[in-house]
């Protein structure tokens, strides 16, 4: 099957891939996630068209030895990997993955030492970091030269340090930002978040948000189209939400203390406020003009 572009072997009981996989010169996507017995990836060294590699939760895989594999994987654009596989920095050696655009490292608390070996990833467009202390080692510092970063997802980071938020607020290239399950009440949202002039999507789901200025700065993001504030603790939203003239989707589900919603921008097409108990007991809100606009519009995914 020399024209095969996608091969999905998630959770397969294999120790290694057959050498014949090297004949799949058109292969672009290889998913080996959850292959707990997988011990080697040497056979993928000739997959010159490979763009996406997923080796998350491959517990017996000691390392992707790029020094042995040579430079044939230089077309790789997306890497999903458990941090223990990023062995002693060999994965980054000799400029390998200089074209990597998406990095999704799944790391434990004791695996942040891999950052000592990571070279600048100047082409990185998308970065996702969850459940780890990687961010405490300033992966977003200028030394990593993430000037092209467009999509950033940080999840379940406690605490989320002020320095990280300050750095994020100066990433003018960001289009999507998610800080789900990051406690923002301890650090607040920096006022210079308005620098994110290109931001189209923002998720602050389950961030322990309350009333006050912590929410006020969001309304300065004039380009914002999608906003997720679900599972937070505020009882109202600032009236400034009406200034988001490009807003199309708003998620307020499971905001159990929410009592009212101010007038929404006429651009809103999607509103999700289910399981927000206070709202359900107040039939007069949100304003009827906002709801009429939602009913007339085509629903969009958020």
UniProtKB/TrEMBL annotation:
Which SMART domains does the protein's record reference? Answer: LRR_TYP
Q: Could you confirm whether the keyword Repeat appears in this record?
A: yes
User: What top-level branch of life does the organism fall under?
Assistant: Eukaryota
Question: Protein name, please?
Answer: Uncharacterized protein
Key words of the record: Leucine-rich repeat, Repeat
Record-linked InterPro entries: Leu-rich_rpt, Leu-rich_rpt_typical-subtyp, LRR_dom_sf
What does UniProt list as this organism's lineage?
A: Eukaryota, Viridiplantae, Streptophyta, Embryophyta, Tracheophyta
- Alphabetical list of Pfam families matching this protein: LRR_1
